[in-house]
Structures are given as structure tokens and as C-alpha cells.
Design a protein that fits this description.
The complex is a heterodimer of chains A (661) and B (306).
Chain A: H1 2-18, H2 24-49, E1 52-58, E2 64-69, H3 71-96, H4 104-126, H5 130-148, H6 155-186, H7 191-200, H8 203-218, H9 227-233, H10 236-246, H11 248-260, H12 265-292, H13 296-323, H14 327-362, H15 378-391, H16 398-416, H17 420-449, H18 457-460, H19 466-484, H20 486-501, H21 506-541, E3 546-548, H22 567-570, H23 572-578, E4 582-588, E5 603-609, H24 610-633, H25 638-657
Antiparallel strand pairs in A: 1-2, 4-5
Helix pairs in contact in A: 1-2, 1-4, 2-3, 2-4, 3-4, 3-10, 3-14, 3-19, 4-5, 5-6, 5-10, 6-7, 6-8, 6-9, 7-11, 8-11, 9-10, 9-13, 10-14, 11-13, 12-13, 12-17, 13-14, 13-16, 13-17, 14-15, 14-16, 14-19, 14-20, 15-17, 15-19, 16-17, 16-19, 19-20, 20-21
Chain B: H1 2-31, H2 40-49, E1 53-55, H3 61-78, H4 95-116, H5 120-151, H6 156-161, H7 168-189, H8 207-210, H9 216-245, H10 249-270, H11 276-301
Classes of the chains: A mainly alpha (661), B mainly alpha (306).
Chain lengths: 661, 306
């Protein structure tokens, strides 16, 4: 296993390094397409034949392990395949701007890491054993670390990458501890062995350890703080694949855990509660923070956290519903969560691609320097509008379908009288999340694309090349398919859910099919009504005077673009409620009320996460202080150092005399 | 079957057309005025529909499509609402969520259109609409969850067609629920005490300021959408009462028109508009109230003495 992996990595590296600069992207596309085709073939096999063993090999620590494909890994393989092909095609245009600045080796390293990341993610979802799983998990972390470091000459990029690496390894340690615990008890570290462990030992500690380990990758509150740092630092296509797919491997791990405890109903209930409430907190925290951000990529990063929250809410509803004895609620929650995993991978890739288009033309991601870009980048504007409508979970696009399934599960919980209070808590959370997401994304879209330009860069920006637009067409097609024909898209999802929960999926199919086909007709009807209204309006206006006049300034005749609402002012109302959750850093001074004729002011505000200071900053400060004490020992005199060595020897001697060592 | 659906739709249109008239007439009577014609708002819209339009050069095509999305989504949502035990045109399990999200779609359309003009005033209105919309969403969902709790289904048609025996618990909860829905209607429609459609200062507006740049057919579409949304919420409130008292549609229709119309008219006559900074508190109070209604409903449903 190890040898083959190393050989494959070496082959990829050699292939990428020898290709000339301009064609490296095509080599990478070739390798990733081959991997993607293989992945999709495997997925099709898993959906038609059920669980299949691919290969078996012995590992260093945990004994014999296998690569297996079952419907759950099949679903994730499809997501990874679609997102990675779109990403690598997109990267052509994005990296082109850097070809002159960076050496050939730099670009090769970038593509090597990209290819490795894709293959490692596929390996993660295929591994059934602890060693191969952890190995590919670590490979995924390292590859993404190199990808974040693309613009390594910027200090904030290096800091974010390092932060990411440290956080991921804390998570990795937890996973190692978890798998070793399983190995100690059962003598094997397969996912299947976790089932035995849960039967033999107190299951909750292991669950919590693994949940935290996976949660670090998925960005569950309060372990989400690496996401808003890493995404602005990484190139956009890397953010797209990391946010769209890589963080979902954490969700994948959690689903595997849920699969392992399926038999124990009481435990399932407890774990459902843990998952549900961490989902509620993650979702609400993510969406509130997203609404506050004034940087495109930070906003998108927080929205990923929110979506992970929504997925966890779905999983929690599934676990609680299943433990309450309702297959229907279980299926609704599980199918909703799985479909949301798929959906989020599609629209989040699209959003990060759009952010990349904007960044490559505007050279900034600050919302407050934009405005009116729709006139200069019409295709990006149209594509991003689709993504925004989808992520706001509005009909008729795909985000709505998955949230609808989760809602149906919760409303069934309420109307059947099963676990009513949990269902109600989830309904409140999900509806509040839905409302604030609308605020966050109308702010994002409105400030970037609509209104008048807030800086002169806007006038110079033009539409991006066709490869990037082409790459963005892939997720769009999938979004439209799931949104408009959900009755077909749900079939593989119910199969996966059946494989996970072991429930009979006929109930769910009987329930979903009529609902989703009606939804599909009504979605088409909605589009038809809107188009018809537009045509009617055009027809009615044909023979009338349609004139142009400036935007109504309410009697004020000299409005300028600086008076427009900015991203910051748009979310001011929400800020007044959520202020206690944030640490604001302010540069400059705002205009005082007493200034009758205000002078020019420089004012910049950043809303930082308070969790960051709770979790990360204090121990950094503590480390600094401890280092300060240690530094006092460094006097620079040789005789002092000899004394230290002598003291050390004496201590060792004394301790060994008393048999302490 | 077809006739029932047709009757349902026609009655809903009647409700949509009458409510604004009733509100205006109530306000006039309360102020001791004779008041405008009952259907003046309809005549105004008819006039608008015959006019041309002025568009700002700042705007994009989105500004011209937005009213169509606004009206289209509201029209589709409108078709889901039953009148007591009559059958609506469209229905499927889970449509209560679909309707709520269609209303969110209308909000996104109008907010983006407002931002498209690049006007600071319209940005103001958009920001407020987005915030209040976000805060009121949980209240709406909890109201719907209470209905699902008592009637056991997740589509409007099934919820309101279930015959309930008259019981005091249900009556109390449903009356409270109707109150919550009327308040949600006030918030969504931008009426006193949250917003004042008749105010003269753009700085203090919410809904009206977002449509400042619309004229002619577009403005007419926005106004029609306003009627449809009013009818949706008024009918849900009236249906909640009807379920409690086993009313049929003959009673529900006048209840929806007169009940909500006169209530809003009276409130508008005697209350001032909230200070804008108070609005968030006001809406959160409504959310808390609907949570309380849901909790009360839950406890009563368990038959625990409280």
C-alpha cells in the first residue's frame, strides 16, 4: 500500500515537473480526470452492486486493511470527482496570472499538491481501515497546506497556513487516539471494529474524541476558527475544493460513526442530541459571523461553517428520529443532510470561483471597494446570482430541496409528537439561519455587483476567460438538475441513506416521490410564471415611453457613489444585536457627531470572532510569556551553561538513586 | 373538484382586493373623515398599469426582472392557501415550508432590486427589510409548527381541512396563533407600528423606500404583490380561528377581510410608528410570543395541568 502510494506520488510529481510551464495545468487535468472517471466508475459499481472490496493489503500498525466502496463512499466519490474537475479547469485561468511571477518549480508543486489532495480525498472515503484512513487523511492535510501556501511571500498567508497545519494536527491527534483505543479493545482498527467497541466499552468517550477529531476538519463550533483564516489566504480554486469538498470528509467521518452506533437506540438518542446541538450552534454562529464580514472570502468561509451546521442539524434529526422509532423522520434527516452535502459542494465551489474571478480582476476581496461589477463582468454576475439563490435555499434551486427534506423531518417530528422539543429547537434554528443567510448573501451580491462603483478599479475590470466560465458551468448544471428535477436526484441519496441507517427506504421513497415530483412541477411553473410576467411586461411597455433618468435621490441632486450603503452599513442592524459575539478591531476614527463640517477620515473596522480569542489567542500569549522566562536562562556565558549541565546530571543521579526514573 | 379550486382562488382574490379597502375605510371612519373610494387602490394600480416607465442608468436587467420574480413567487404562494375546508389549487406535503421560502424569494428579489439602484435610501430600506425578514422567519415557522402540532400534517390543505371537535385548549392556542399571524402580516406588509407606508421622510421608511425608483407597470406589480401577501397571511390567521370554531368558508372569508382589515385599521389609527431602533426588539418579542404559543400548545396537547 505504502509503496504503491509513494510510487504513484513520485510518478505524478515527475510528470508535473517535466511538463512545460503553460501545459502543467493540462497534465494535472489529465491525471485528475483519470482519477475522477475511475471514481465515478467505482461509485456506479457501488450503487448497482452494493459494497465491494477493491483491494486488501497489510499495514504497519493495524494489521490487514482493505479499500472498500459502498454507497456512502460512492456518493462522496462523485462529489469529489465533480468538484475537482471543475477546480482544475478553473485553475488554468487563475494561475495564468502568476506564471510570470513564480518559478516553474513553484507551479509544479502547486499542481502536485492539487492532484495529491484529490487522490487523498478519494482514498479517505475508500479506506475502511484505521491506518490507511489516517494515512490518506494526513496526506490530505499536507497537500492542502501546500496549496494554501501558494502566495507564500505574503506574511498573512504563511500565518494562516501554519495556523491551519497546527489545528489540523490537533484534530489528527484526536483521531489517532480514537483509533488506537479501538485497536486496543478489539484488535483491529477498521470502521467495522468501532461497532464492536461500542458494544464492549462505554461508547461516549470514543464518540466524543472522534467527533472532535472529525469536527476539526468539518469546522464545527468552536473548532471552526481555521476556516475564515485559511480561505482568504488560499487561491480561490483551492478555497473552492477545500470548502466545497475537503471539509465534507469530516462530515463523512461523523456519518461513519453514526453508522457504527446504529444498533444501540439509547446511545443513538444521546449522540443525536450532541450532533443536533453542535449543528445548531455551528450554524447560527457561522451565519451571524458571515453576515458581519466585509471580505468576500471570509464571508464565504463563515457560510461554509453555517452549512456544516445545517448538515449536522439534518444528521441530528436523523439520529433522534431513528431512535424515537420513526423511519420516516430518520430518512428525511439523513437524506436532507446527504443532499445538502452534495448541494453545498456545488454552490460553494461556484461561489469561490466567482470570488476568484473578482479577485483576479479587482486585486482585492474587500467588499467596500466594489459595486456595479455586474456591468463589467456580466457572466460572473449571472452565475453568482444562481449560486446565491441556491445557497439562500430558495426555490426553485437545489439548496431548497435539501432544506425541505430536513424541515419535513422536523415537522413530522412535531406532528407525530415524537421528540417535539428537539424538533422545535431545530426548526427555530434552521429558520433563523435561513433568514440571516438571506441577509448575508444579499449583502454580498448587492455590494459587489449592484449599485455604482466604489473604486476606480471596477471600471478597468473585464470578464474572465472562457475556461473559467466553462468550469463554472459544471456545478451550475448540477445545481439546476437537483433543483428542477429533485425526484430523480433523490434516488441515489435514498439508497445511501438506506445503507447507512439500515432502515427500509420504501417508506421514504413513497413519501418523497410524490412530494418531490409535485415540487418539480411547481418549480417549473414558478419559472414559467416569472418568464410570462416578464414577457407580458415587455409587451405592455412596447408602445410606451421608456426613459432613463438618474436614481431618485429624494430631492438631493448631487448624490455620489460614496453615499451608497456599504457592506458594513447593510449589516449594522444585525450588529446591534450580535455585538457581544465579536471582537472589533478598528483602524482610524469614525466621524464624531460634534463635527459639523467633517474632515476626511480613514476608518476600517474588522469583526473578529470572539472564539478566536477564547481558544487560540490566550495560549499563544501564554507561550510567549513562558518563552520569556526560558529566555532569561540564556545568559551567553559558558560557565552558566556548564552549571546547567551539571545541575541536570545531579538531578538525574538523585532521581535514579530513588528509583524515580 | 375543479369548481372548488376555482371558488377558492376567486375568494382569495376577493380577500386580496378587499383588505386594503377595509383598512383605508376603517382609518377614515376612526379619523372622522369620509375617506377615499373603497377601491381607490385598485384604480391607482389600473392607472399605473397604463403608464410608461423611467429606469435609472445605474440599474441592470436585474432591476427589471425583480418585480416579475416578486409578483410571480407571491402568485404561486397564493395558490397554496386554502379557505377553511375548501381545496387550494396547489398542495403537497411540506408546502408550508415551500410557501415560507417563496416569501423569502420575494424578499431577496426586492432587496437586490433596491441595491441595484445605488441609492443610499433604498440601501437603507433593503438593509432593514433583510434584517426584519430574517428575524420574523422563526416566528412564522413556529406558527406553522404549532399548526402542524395540532392538526398533524405538513400541508396547508390537510391542516385546515381536518375537522376538529371543539375544545377549549385548541381555541385558546388558535386565537393566540391568529394574533401572531396578524402581527407577522403587519411586519411583512410594512404597516404601523413597524413601518408607516404614509410617512413623508424616506429616512424612516422600510418597504416604500425600496420601490422609490419603480414606476408604471413595475410599481403596479409590487403593489399587487403587497395585496397577495396580505391575503396569504390574513387567510392563514382566519383559518386558524376557523379550525378552532369549526367555521366553514362562508364565515372564514368575511373573517379574513373584516377581522384583519379592521384590526389593522384600528391599530394604525391609534398607534404611532415605532422608533426604528425599537423595531428589532418588537420583532424579537413577537418571536418569543410565538415560541410561547408553541410551548403552551405543546403542554396543552400533552394534557398536563398548567
Amino acid at each position: 500500500m505504502l509503496v504503491y502510494t509513494l510510487l504513484a506520488v513520485v510518478a505524478i510529481i515527475v510528470a508535473l515537473f517535466v511538463t512545460p510551464m503553460r501545459y502543467k495545468v493540462w497534465t494535472a487535468t489529465g491525471i485528475i480526470s483519470a482519477a475522477a472517471i475511475a471514481a465515478i466508475t467505482l461509485a456506479v459499481k457501488a450503487f448497482s452492486d452494493g459494497t465491494t472490496e477493491l483491494m486488501s493489503f497489510s499495514t504497519i500498525f493495524f494489521g490487514r486493511e482493505t479499500l472498500m466502496v459502498d454507497p456512502l463512499s460512492g456518493l462522496f466519490l462523485v462529489i469529489i470527482a465533480i468538484a475537482s474537475i471543475a477546480t482544475v479547469i478553473y485553475s488554468r485561468g487563475y494561475v495564468e496570472g502568476y506564471l510570470k511571477r513564480y518559478s516553474s518549480a513553484h507551479i509544479s508543486l502547486h499542481y502536485t499538491a492539487l492532484v495529491t489532495l484529490v487522490i487523498a480525498m478519494m482514498a479517505v472515503v475508500l479506506s475502511s481501515g484505521g491506518f490507511s484512513f489516517l494515512f490518506s487523511w494526513e496526506m490530505m492535510t499536507i497537500a492542502s497546506f501546500i496549496l494554501i501556501l501558494f502566495e507564500a511571500e505574503r506574511q498573512e498567508v504563511r500565518r494562516a497556513a501554519l495556523n491551519y497545519l497546527v489545528m489540523m494536527h490537533i484534530g489528527f491527534m484526536l483521531l489517532v487516539v480514537g483509533f488506537v483505543m479501538v485497536y486496543n479493545v478489539t484488535g483491529s482498527a477498521n470502521f467495522a471494529a468501532i461497532v464492536d467497541y461500542f458494544k464492549m466499552q462505554a461508547p461516549l468517550p470514543l464518540f466524543v474524541i472522534l467527533f472532535l477529531g472529525f469536527g476539526m476538519k468539518a469546522g464545527i463550533f468552536p473548532m471552526h476558527i481555521w476556516l475564515p483564516e485559511a480561505h482568504p489566504a488560499a487561491p480561490s480554486h483551492v478555497s473552492a475544493i477545500m470548502s466545497g469538498v475537503m471539509i465534507k470528509t469530516g462530515i463523512y467521518g461523523i456519518i461513519r460513526l453514526m453508522q457504527a452506533i446504529d444498533l444501540n437506540v439509547q446511545l443513538l438518542n444521546t449522540i443525536g442530541m450532541i450532533i443536533l446541538f453542535s449543528g445548531i450552534i455551528t450554524g447560527l454562529w457561522g451565519v451571524i459571523m458571515a453576515a458581519m464580514q466585509n471580505d468576500i472570502k471570509r464571508l464565504l468561509a463563515y457560510s461554509s461553517i453555517e452549512n456544516v451546521g445545517v448538515i449536522l442539524i439534518g444528521l441530528g434529526v436523523a439520529a433522534i428520529g431513528h431512535s424515537a422509532g420513526s423511519d420516516l423522520i430518520g430518512m428525511c434527516g439523513m437524506c436532507g443532510a446527504l443532499l445538502h452535502v452534495v448541494n453545498h459542494s456545488l454552490f460553494k465551489t461556484l461561489l469561490f470561483f466567482s470570488a476568484g474571478n473578482i479577485y483576479s480582476k479587482m486585486h482585492t476581496t474587500s467588499l467596500n471597494k466594489m459595486g456595479g461589477l455586474a456591468k463589467h463582468m456580466p457572466m460572473t454576475a449571472i452565475i453568482m446570482l444562481f449560486a446565491v439563490v441556491a445557497i439562500c435555499a430558495l426555490p426553485p434551486l437545489n439548496g431548497f430541496v435539501s432544506e425541505l427534506l430536513i424541515y419535513i423531518g422536523m415537522f413530522n417530528g412535531v406532528s407525530d409528537g415524537r421528540e417535539v422539543l428537539f424538533s422545535v429547537a431545530a426548526i427555530i434554528a434552521l429558520s433563523l439561519i435561513g433568514g440571516i443567510v438571506v441577509l448575508a448573501f444579499t449583502k454580498l451580491y448587492g455590494t459587489i455587483f449592484l449599485g455604482s462603483p466604489r473604486s476606480t478599479h471596477v471600471a478597468e475590470s473585464t470578464e474572465v476567460d472562457n475556461y473559467r466560465i466553462g468550469a463554472m458551468a459544471i456545478p451550475i448544471a448540477a445545481i439546476l438538475f437537483i433543483g428542477l428535477l429533485p425526484q430523480f436526484a433523490i434516488h441515489p441519496i435514498t439508497m445511501v441513506a438506506e445503507a447507512i441507517t439500515g432502515d427500509d427506504n420504501t417508506i421514504a421513497v413513497e413519501y418523497f416521490d410524490p412530494t418531490l415530483s409535485t415540487l418539480s412541477y411547481i418549480s417549473w411553473a414558478l419559472i414559467a410564471v416569472i418568464v410570462a410576467l416578464y414577457l407580458l411586461k415587455r409587451r405592455a411597455q412596447r408602445n410606451r415611453t421608456i426613459s432613463e433618468g438618474p436614481t431618485w435621490g429624494c430631492g438631493f441632486t448631487a448624490p455620489n457613489e460614496r453615499m451608497q450603503y456599504t457592506g458594513e452599513s447593510f449589516s449594522e442592524g444585525l450588529e446591534s444585536i450580535t455585538k457581544p459575539l465579536m471582537n472589533d478591531t478598528v483602524d482610524g476614527r469614525s466621524v464624531e457627531k460634534s463635527e459639523i463640517f467633517p474632515q476626511p477620515h480613514n476608518y476600517r473596522i474588522q469583526h473578529k470572532d470572539k472564539v478566536d480569542s477564547w481558544l487560540a489567542q490566550w495560549w499563544v500569549k501564554m507561550m510567549h510569556r513562558i518563552n520569556g522566562y526560558v529566555m532569561r536562562l540564556r545568559t551567553g556565558r559558558v560557565n552558566n551553561y556548564i552549571t546547567f549541565a551539571l545541575v541536570f546530571f545531579i538531578v538525574v543521579l538523585v532521581l535514579s538513586l530513588f528509583n524515580v526514573l | 373538484m375543479f369548481l372548488v379550486k376555482l371558488l377558492n382562488t376567486l375568494l382569495m382574490i376577493v380577500v386580496a382586493l378587499f383588505i386594503t379597502g377595509v383598512i383605508n375605510r376603517t382609518r377614515a371612519v376612526m379619523a372622522g373623515r369620509k375617506g377615499i373610494r373603497f377601491f381607490q387602490h385598485v384604480y391607482n394600480v389600473r392607472l399605473l398599469l397604463r403608464k410608461g416607465a423611467v429606469y435609472s442608468p445605474t440599474t441592470t436587467i436585474l432591476f427589471r426582472i425583480a418585480p416579475c420574480v416578486y409578483l410571480g413567487a407571491a402568485m404561486v404562494a397564493f395558490l397554496f392557501i386554502p379557505i377553511a375546508d375548501l381545496e387550494p389549487v396547489l398542495s403537497f406535503r411540506g408546502d408550508i415550508i415551500f410557501v415560507a421560502y417563496l416569501l423569502a424569494l420575494t424578499r431577496v428579489a426586492i432587496v437586490l432590486a433596491a441595491l441595484d439602484t445605488g441609492s443610499s435610501f433604498e440601501g437603507m430600506g433593503a438593509a432593514r427589510e433583510a434584517l426584519y425578514g430574517a428575524l420574523v422567519e422563526p416566528a412564522l415557522m413556529m406558527g406553522l409548527a404549532t399548526l402542524a402540532l395540532f392538526c398533524g400534517y405538513s400541508s396547508f390543505a390537510e391542516i385546515f381541512s381536518t375537522a376538529q371537535e371543539l375544545n377549549t385548549n385548541l381555541t385558546i392556542v388558535m386565537l393566540l396563533l391568529a394574533y401572531v399571524f396578524v402581527i407577522i402580516m403587519i411586519i411583512e406588509a410594512g404597516r404601523i407600528p413597524v413601518d408607516d407606508p404614509k410617512t413623508h421622510l424616506e429616512l424612516t421608511m422600510i418597504h416604500e423606500v425600496m420601490c422609490l425608483d419603480y414606476s408604471g407597470v413595475d410599481l403596479a406589480m409590487i403593489q399587487i404583490t403587497g395585496w397577495l401577501k396580505n391575503a396569504i397571511f390574513a387567510m392563514i390567521a382566519a383559518n386558524a380561528v376557523s379550525v378552532a370554531f369549526c367555521f366553514h368558508w362562508q364565515f372564514t372569508v368575511p373573517l379574513a377581510i373584516l377581522g384583519t382589515g379592521i384590526t389593522i385599521g384600528i391599530v394604525e389609527s391609534f398607534r404611532a410608528r415605532n422608533k426604528l431602533s425599537r423595531n428589532t426588539t418588537y420583532i424579537i418579542t413577537i418571536v418569543a410570543l410565538s415560541a410561547l404559543v408553541l410551548l403552551t400548545g405543546f403542554l396543552l396537547n400533552l394534557n398536563i395541568e398548567i
